[in-house]
Design a protein that fits this description.
The complex is a heterotrimer of chains A (285), B (210) and C (125).
Chain A: E1 3-13, E2 18-27, E3 31-35, H1 42-49, E4 57-62, E5 65-66, H2 71-75, E6 78-81, H3 93-101, H4 109-118, H5 132-144, E7 150-154, H6 162-176, E8 182-187, H7 191-194, E9 199-204, E10 207-213, H8 214-220, E11 222-226, H9 228-233, E12 241-244, E13 249-253, H10 256-262, E14 268-269, H11 273-282
Parallel strand pairs in A: 3-8, 3-9, 6-7, 7-8
Antiparallel strand pairs in A: 1-2, 1-4, 4-5, 9-10, 11-13, 11-14, 12-13
Helix pairs in contact in A: 3-4, 4-5
Chain B: H1 2-13, H2 16-31, H3 40-58, H4 61-65, H5 71-106, H6 111-139, H7 141-165, H8 169-174, H9 182-207
Helix pairs in contact in B: 1-5, 3-5, 3-6, 5-6, 5-9, 6-7, 6-9
Chain C: H1 13-26, H2 39-46, H3 50-62, E1 66-69, E2 73-76, H4 81-105, H5 110-124
Antiparallel strand pairs in C: 1-2
Helix pairs in contact in C: 1-3, 2-3
The chains are: A alpha/beta (285), B mainly alpha (210), C mainly alpha (125).
Chain lengths: 285, 210, 125
Amino acid sequence: MENSLEIKKLSKKYDNFALENISFNLPKGMIMGFIGENGAGKTTTIKTILNIVQDYTGEIKIFGLDNRQNDKKIKEDIGVVLDDMFFPEILTPLDIDKIMRGIYKNWDSSLFKNYLNEFKLPSKKIIKTLSKGMHKKLEIATALAHHPKLLILDEPTSGLDPVARAEVIEIFQRFIENADCSILFSTHITTDLEHVADYITFIDEGKILLSKTTEELLEQYGIVKCNKDDFQKIDAKDYLKYKKTKYAYEVLVENKKEFTKKYNIKVIDKLTLDELMVLMIKGEE
Amino acid sequence: MLGFIKKDLAMIKSNFKLLGILIIIYTIMGFLGKMDISFILPFMSVMIMISSFSYDNYNNWDAYAITFPDGRKNGVKSKYITTILMVLVVSLITLILSFLISYVTTKSINYGETLVTMLGTIFGTLLVLTIMYPIIYKLGVEKARMAIFLIVFGIVIIGGFLVQYIDLSVITKSLAFLENYLGLILIIITILMVYISYKIALHIVMKKEY
Amino acid sequence: MEIIISNSSGVPIYEQIKEQIKEKIIANELKENELLPSIRTLAKDLRCSVITTKNAYEELVKEGYVKTIPAKGFYVAKINKDIIREEQLNKIEELLSEAIHLAKASNVSRAVLNEMIDILESEEK
């Protein structure tokens, strides 16, 4: 399968933080959820993909092209929503439309205005007067109106209420109806992703912990809940992480089916991405 | 590129009301003979452009603009182009107003002298702005404010010192033959100055990490 | 076409989609050569991931209920009634043998089992 985005061994050092050997691929036509705690390195990774941070080692390819050598060409086809980065707040949505016509070859004013209508955004009010939710929606409309092939979204649902979240997620799914389009979607609200993301990439302390299809994670991974005696019978190589709670052991296993074949332990649950995140970060090896 | 210029112009436009009021106040003071109207240019240009940079900084526009095609380069280029456009427009307005004021108050217009004064003011204004921009791009508006203040203050002190304690007549005399070309020389120096400042700012931005 | 997905049933979503489309094909609600929604449209409408609907369709193709025409989409295949009957008999057999196995293990007699079937059948009606 062709990849929209390929990251190989990306590393970037700061004084108190580092991205270490980040590698993952986003296949064309797919939505990838990029999850991790605040400060795990999601935003820094996204900034390097976009060359906002450009001094790094490793390789980043977008649409099969090196992102530093083909910057201009690639960016015609990328739409972004970034945390805390946008147009100066004294401009209006109408200004944005006029400006963007002079920035992207493919800027589609009528599409942009359709989004403004759909999101009920006033076109003549300055950005400063918009609520946080409306501000985010304006950022999303701006990211979509030049018919990009890759959307890079850093926390696009933060500040949105559940109804608005459902609304924008539907728009992302509409976007992906075109099989040439892909989305990289970072968030710490994992319920947004559980159903719609095809892939989940999980980053913690600057390292990728896993990058897999959502189905594999939700259908194959599981949480075993058992007492101490049972836990001691489990071979260390048969689980990923475990956490001891007051009343029981919670054990993260990679393959529910194989685990039940081998062990006679009754309680084994499907897992949610939230539980996965907590166990991967807080659990013991 | 065009989009970037439109954006910077739109930001200046949002200051229009305030600018209009200032121009009216200055003009009235000019008519009353209380103020030299050529002060409008440096005062307003610096104010408008610093406010434009502040708004950009506040929403991290420079970083956001990098996600557009050729965003780093075009961001800087457009700031310089809009600055020049603005300086020319404001100069034209001031020029017309000074002709008007001098005609109303003295019934005569000294075209040559007014033009040279204007040229000097444009030079001075662009000198301050071209020193400012690379510093702002390097440090951000907040930190740059202090640095700019120190530099402008330094220029004034040193200038004052030179005029006061050093006999400049030697230099003036030896340069006297240039007097006829003063306007042309000023224009050339101004263009060079803007160009060099642009190159430095661009270099800073192309390397910058946000 | 109605497809109802439960997120808490424990049955993988792609399997729920697959089974429900299959039922509709067997019941002739979806007719031979009828065009099915594309993988992406279905994913959008069901609010699930593209990979999920793709898996469901791939399984349906593998089992012979759906055929794919490249660059056009997925169509309901001509289904072989005998094969479907065979498959359903197999499934019934499988479920019954499990019931018998359990009955033996817990000492439930054949008579009780027959009675259960009668009761369940009358309830279905």
